[in-house]
Write a sequence for this structure.
């Protein structure tokens, strides 16, 4: 098949409404994930997003077991779960990675037990694990757009405070900043981002989806503001690139987006290397 014919096929494919929704949804969630992921990485909450992702399977299991729409249950469950984990992190003296490992493993174990009571789940377990971006509906796009705007406003209006809380929490507390309140707001937004992105990316890949753009941006620049912007752009660009790769070679969309992110990460590793060589 010639390249011209293949390009025409892909072009026709993106004329379909569900493909257009998938592309827009990927860009919206990619931008939001990159934006909040930039703070999550610096605050050493990378594993936190992974824990949230796997807890989502527990929320979905509860929804299916109770005969409710799993998507409706997922978002409030993710927020409550995230706030509960944040409370435990504040009140216990355990290492963060140790506590998150406990929560991560326990939620996954309980989810599997609940699914065993359900019998044969017809909702598509593979779609939960690896995502189904082609199944995004108009309502999902509206919520994703509202969430992106809320995250931009939150970061934009409190940027100096977020920088201080991220880089020097003790100094922020000394200046009278309510670190706990800002942490709670950030955790809530991150939980919503993880919850809405799972439909596109899946439980198993959500952590990489949030973390890789931020790590890529960190390799490119040392300026905090540019770091946030680059992370957001990488998230959006990866969604577009992943969707194109998926369309050209008929590959799963979620994994294609994460592989695109990984490719950009490896390209970015040459940036600091070039700086050292030519400095």
């Amino acid at each position: 098949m010639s390249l011209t014919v293949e390009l025409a096929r892909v072009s026709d494919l993106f004329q379909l409404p569900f493909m257009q929704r998938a592309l827009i949804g990927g860009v919206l969630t990619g931008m939001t994930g990159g934006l909040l992921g930039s703070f999550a990485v610096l605050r050493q909450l990378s594993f936190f997003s992974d824990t949230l992702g796997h807890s989502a399977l527990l929320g979905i299991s509860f929804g299916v077991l109770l005969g409710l729409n799993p998507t409706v249950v997922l978002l409030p469950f993710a927020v409550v779960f995230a706030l509960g984990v944040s409370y435990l992190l504040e009140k216990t003296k355990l290492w963060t990675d140790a506590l998150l490992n406990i929560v991560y493993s326990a939620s996954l174990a309980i989810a599997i037990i609940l699914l065993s009571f359900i019998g044969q789940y017809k909702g598509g377990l593979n779609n939960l694990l690896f995502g189904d971006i082609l199944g995004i509906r108009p309502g999902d796009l509206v919520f994703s757009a509202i969430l992106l705007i809320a995250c931009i406003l939150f970061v934009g209006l409190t940027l100096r405070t977020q920088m201080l809380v991220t880089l020097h929490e003790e100094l922020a507390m000394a200046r009278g900043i309510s670190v706990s309140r800002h942490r709670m707001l950030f955790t809530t937004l991150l939980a919503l981002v993880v919850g809405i992105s799972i439909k596109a990316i899946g439980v198993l890949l959500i952590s990489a989806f949030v973390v890789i753009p931020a790590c890529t941006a960190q390799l490119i620049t040392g300026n905090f503001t540019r770091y946030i912007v680059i992370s957001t752009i990488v998230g959006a660009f990866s969604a577009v690139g992943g969707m194109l790769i998926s369309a050209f070679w008929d590959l799963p969309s979620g994994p294609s987006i994460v592989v695109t992110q990984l490719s950009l990460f490896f390209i970015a590793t040459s940036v600091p290397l070039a700086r050292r060589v030519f400095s």
